[in-house]
Amino acid sequence: MEQDDILNLVSSLKISDEEDSSVVVLDRDVCNLGKWKLSSCLACKVLSSKTMPREVIRKQVLKILQLVGNVIVDLIGNNLFIMEFSSQRDQKRVLTNGPWNLFRNLLIFTKLHENSKISSLVFDSQEIWVQIHNIPLACMNRECAEILGNNIGNLVEVAVGDKGDCWGWYLRLKIAIDISKPLKRVVRLCLREGEAPEMLLLQYERLPNLCYRCGLLGHSSRECLAEAMVDEAGKEILKFEPWMLASSGVCRPKFNASQAAAGGNDDQ
250 in helix, strand or coil? Predict the structure, then answer.
């Protein structure tokens, strides 16, 4: 039975008097045992149109995540897994150091709680490092970064220098993004009301498998079911392009103290 079928059935099911009088109440120790076990687990979804075998997932995930401890991988649905970690450090690292990808398919991890149900697990949010390019120097500060970050999604972290500044080639923000919607390409910014808006370009770090037709993650343009836009010659017009995928996450040139003391130039 599919998840949507289960949810619809539960919401529409009529309970008889006999069923209504029979309620199972769990002992607190039993509940606490379940909560304790869930605290070491994460649910994982492989965002792909293709089904991934459990054994492939288990072997490749261990290799990709480079875990210190052990992890038990259990299949609970199509490309949906529960991972039980023996190390809390491993679990925290998986949650904070993403996004992760398997064969260029995004791995989305989410925490589990005592009321979590397989039928109601949601995988529509992913924390991603986003670079904001072409930004005015007056906006390269934490205050502006917070406003822009929350415009793109839900701001998690701002990359800053040793003194808390944001100077660099671009702003770099970790943002929880709603991946059920197309990725944003730009943010339009006005320094003052009435002025022409500046066009700020967005690049996303470590992202796999972006569809250049619809802007969603989880499939390629060849697999996309959205209607293609074409020009007069019949050639497809892609709204989203490879420049949206950042090649690195280094936004501040390193200062070479020994070279500077010798009168050298880092640009040579």
Answer: coil
